[in-house]
Write a structure and sequence with these properties.
The chain is mainly α. The protein has helices at 2-35, 42-60, 73-103, 108-130, 155-177, 179-189, 191-196, 201-225, 233-248, 253-269, 279-293, and strands spanning 145-148, 151-153.
């Protein structure tokens, strides 16, 4: 009985963790597919989003608690502003760093190393401005509610899951129905063919950065809301984000979401039988198992040359 209760709690924690990972993995997935390189600086956009929201909350407050949450309208407003500014920051980073490198003929490996160095710079700027201390959006206390026998969750966590589902559904509809969404999916399949068909690839690239940065900021706020805001928000999730994006299939929205949930579940459920020190290895063990069967990931399309 006690074992089943622990498993139920681990499953619930895994889903909640996976929701945050999925939001961050979407940007990585589309960036890898369209830009053709792994952007290690993407994880730091989560941190910047979290701290931008913290600054806004410092001016307007988190708002009066409502609907059982520890915050109100103020934090939702701060989150919206953080998403907009983090999206703009992602685009600015591309214009100032990655675009000149691409124009200069830099290879994919050069872009990867540049993103790694850029990520370190972005993280240390956070430390320079705000220090190493952890901070909170609100200090209102919450009581976990028992949703199932032995499974307790905070109202904040429920809100995070609901908002994540709504964002994913809205994003799916946008990708499927809007002209920009269709252009983005076409460029993800083949940038050269999309350009030949009259699609403005640079506009697609800009949209990719704006979208990825905004979703990363949302994930950063959610990650900072559940425990606390600190400079390691993005760094602590970096490996999980890439594992989720690759596991689900690069360029696939559904793949990034399912991959995020799978990684979240693996990291939490397997902690019941192994030491927490092995947590970073859980997602990659799952990744290896899946890729041995499907090298293109769960929802990735097999391309010419795949075996």
């Amino acid at each position: 009985m006690f074992g089943s209760m622990m498993l139920g709690q681990a499953l619930a924690d895994g889903v909640l963790t996976g929701a945050v990972i999925a939001l961050g993995a979407i940007g990585i997935s589309f960036t890898m597919q369209i830009m053709r390189f792994a952007n290690f600086a993407h994880a730091e956009l989560l941190t910047w989003g979290g701290y931008i929201a913290l600054v806004i909350v410092g001016f307007v407050g988190a708002g009066a608690p409502s609907l059982g949450l520890s915050f109100g309208f103020g934090l939702w407003l701060a989150t919206a502003v953080a998403m907009a500014l983090a999206g703009a920051l992602a685009w600015a980073v591309d214009r100032l760093v990655f675009r000149p490198l691409r124009a200069g003929g830099a290879g994919h490996l050069t872009l990867v190393f540049a993103s790694f160095g850029l990520g370190l710079v972005m993280r240390h700027l956070i430390v320079l401005f705000w220090g190493h201390d952890s901070r909170f959006y609100t200090r209102e206390l919450q009581m976990a509610a028992e949703v199932l026998p032995g499974v307790r969750v905070l109202p904040n966590q429920v809100a995070i899951l609901v908002v994540t589902l709504l964002v994913v559904v809205a994003l799916h509809q946008w990708l499927a129905r809007s002209r920009t969404g269709v252009a983005l999916r076409a460029a993800a399949e083949s940038p050269a063919l999309a350009a030949a068909c009259g699609i403005e690839v640079e506009r697609v690239i800009r949209t990719t950065w704006l979208l990825g940065g905004a979703l990363a900021a949302l994930a950063g706020v959610f990650q900072g809301l559940t425990p606390q805001v600190n400079p390691e928000i993005g760094g602590s999730l970096l490996l999980s984000l890439f594992a989720a994006a690759i596991l689900g299939g690069v360029g696939s929205l559904a793949g990034a979401v399912i991959g995020g949930l799978a990684v979240g579940l693996a990291e939490n459920v397997l902690l019941l039988v192994v030491s927490p020190g092995y947590k970073p290895a859980m997602s990659f063990a799952l990744l290896l198992v899946v890729l041995l069967a499907r090298p293109q990931g769960l929802f990735g399309e097999r391309r010419e040359g795949d075996r």
